[in-house]
Batch of 2 targets.
Target 1
Amino acid sequence: MNILHIDSSILGDASASRGLTRDLVDTLVRTHPGADVVYRDLGASVAGHLDGELLAARSTPAELRSAESRARAEAADAVTREFFDADLIVLGAPMYNFGIPSQLKTWIDLVAVAGITFRYTEAGPRGLAGDKRVIIAATAGGQHAGLPSGAAHLDIGDPEEAEEELQVVDVGGAEGLSTGAAQRESALAAARNSVEAIVA
Ligand SMILES: Cc1cc2nc3c(=O)[nH]c(=O)nc-3n(C[C@H](O)[C@H](O)[C@H](O)COP(=O)(O)O)c2cc1C
């Protein structure tokens, strides 16, 4: 099994989501001996925003690219390939300014490539990257349960309703992490406790 472990927190060792993704991956490796883990730290370095130059570089045949556009396209292709090769993705997704970190949005922009990882059909977009399970460790400083912001960020979705080829499971959404030490500890403990069940 190929595991892709992604962190996107900018808070380094103080990050809550980094601790949760580490617990998840440690448990997965323990329960799936022989699993290969690839790690990408989006919080440490952005892979390169999807701008006009990168878009053009990716759609230019390799032999016609400049040295700079070749380097950019190859770096972006490596990110896409990691996604493509993964059977299971463990994703740390903190809430910053009511959304995901811009680095994580950039990663999504790099892996969502029409004709490679998905295709448009009359019935809507369809995945081309094979069966994958995505486990998301979503964290937030405030309380968002019952609010549109909670539905968008923490209530990732019902796996039963997810696309057949993409199962999405929330780790339990640790929220209220900035509302006091006791709330932070109990929210993180609840999320950590759910790790074994999610992995099973
Ligand atoms: C720049 C920044 C913006 C934030 N914006 C929000 C926000 O909009 N809503 C919220 O509930 N918490 C917000 N927080 C708090 C984080 O969600 C909280 O610290 C959480 O633990 C982040 O996950 P992490 O520790 O893995 O980085 C913000 C934190 C930072 C550093």
Target 2
Amino acid sequence: MTASSDTHSTPYEAPLKDLILALDVVGLADILQLGHFHHVDRETVLLALDEFGRLASKDIAGTDRIGDVVGAQIDRPSASVETPVAFHDAYQRYVSGGWGSLAYPQEYGGGDLPSVISLALQEMFASANMALSLNPVLTQGAIDALLHWGSTEQKGRFLPRLLTGEWTGTMNLTEPGAGSDLGEIQTMAEPRGDGLWLISGTKIFITWGEHDLADNIVHLVLARTPQAPLGTKGLSLFIVPKFTESTVDPGGTRNSLRCISLEEKLGIHGSPTCVMSFERAEGELVGDLHGGMRAMFTMMNAARLSIGVQGPAVGERAYQHALRYSTERLQGRSSGATNGPSPIVEHPDVQRMLLSMSTTNQASRLVLFWVGAQVDQARHGSSPLDRERAQAMVDLVTPVAKAWATDCGFATTSLGIQVLGGAGYIEESGMAQRLRDSRIAPIYEGTNGIQAIDLVARKLNRSDGAWVRSLLDEIASSIPTAVDTTDPLQPSYTHLLEALGTLRESTEWMLARFSSHRNDVLAGASSYLELFGLTMGGWLMVKRAEFSRSQSSKNGSRTVAECNFFALEFLSRAVGLAQPIRAGASRLEALSAIE
Ligand SMILES: Cc1cc2nc3c(=O)[nH]c(=O)nc-3n(C[C@H](O)[C@H](O)[C@H](O)COP(=O)(O)OP(=O)(O)OC[C@H]3O[C@@H](n4cnc5c(N)ncnc54)[C@H](O)[C@@H]3O)c2cc1C
């Protein structure tokens, strides 16, 4: 709980123009042309964004401060978890609007909209109240796992109510001895003899593991079965509902699982982070025995994008706050002003901070939406080749999008505090909450370090590096080869070309060394991921500027200026990353020299 008892949230206005522009840049028009989306037109998409934007700005954004100050509370004797009253109303509006089901199949009551649209909605939700937005994120993870791996009967039983949000879902992976390394999971599942399983063990850090917003909570639990192989190969995934199938109606008996405590943590206080105890709880297998990791990756891949979105989401809220403050706060006289203290927004260094915030938000949003668009193409693209390439792009860039966007988000909230000066460090301003909330995103859903390892150790060398080279070629082909100093975008092209050259060389360096010098590759993995994110961000900022100047000259010049700022301020640093990427593991020997 924070020191301040002020429960006033800072305002938030959904950045609809920027969201729509980002969707256009990553190919919304092409997605809507796909046969699968014949029932969706641009008008429907704009209407959905507008309506959800109003819900987020007007109804949800006012609840995040109370969530921070009051938080979720446990009543230990009954093992029940209460969330702030304001959350109930906001969540009910989300459920009654059918927002959770928008991107899911009509067969289960969904709207079958492109999944990239749901990323835009998730961004607005997380801007408005990151802690509350985690509830649907986890539910979506459970839905994805059931859609891919559930039996027809399980889908029919669980999906309709998970889609509406009447029931919510969780991911129960982490244990005290099993965080990044899930191979250490000890939770056991024993066959009960009637096709069901008895689950026993303790899971920690379970987001929304227990709460009072929904009638039932469907836990997806990774557990080990008797005589299963050691490590991750022996894990299976189980559905373990809070109320079992026969007892879901009010008054039914509870499954033998409970929340034994809530973690006190740095941020997202409104999101209950639960220690869950399963005491021979009734569960049913999802997918294949020992197929738990594959099923878990289905949950995690979609969730990684949703967590990635928290970067620009919290960054956007921080930016709006910082911008407002900078026009109201008077300090110092700006050059050229004739009298009085000036609003701090007139000082070049404050302008630098504000533009750094807004452009990294834009760039990281574009990278995430680009992957989201590839998800739609991978599922519904018009040819097998299109689908295969799009899926390869999803696999390759998801770790980059998750890690780079969440690192950017945290850096942005830190700048937000800097813009407010001392007031930013004081809880009452509300900016400190942004920094505290955003800090978890680089940790959960696979730490950003693990994302970097996933990128260099699993994703780059797929098809002997053919997919990564294909993406780099695509970026290269979009940059004009001749220098045109009259083109206002030329500074961006120049820096993009340099960054791309560095990324290409570093990629080849990684591919060539992975088998023989694994530690050198791992030592440079995080810097390589940063270079990848920066280059993708720079590329998509260029596309954004090109797209918008082709549409309107006013918006065009704003986006060109933003693009050049991003290129000069951030993309220009990409070449320097070649050093830490390729320095190898020997530089880490410095650690062993520490006494
Ligand atoms: C608020 C919150 C909510 C969460 N929600 C959920 C949830 O809903 N469900 C769930 O199952 N879990 C959840 N988690 C757990 C979260 O996913 C883990 O904390 C995360 O995966 C990291 O695991 P760990 O904390 O054990 O860290 P560790 O695995 O101990 O890692 C510590 C550090 O070592 C690094 N490291 C570890 N292994 C390696 C390696 N092989 N190579 C290089 N570096 C390595 C990591 O990158 C990290 O920097 C949540 C955690 C928090 C704090």
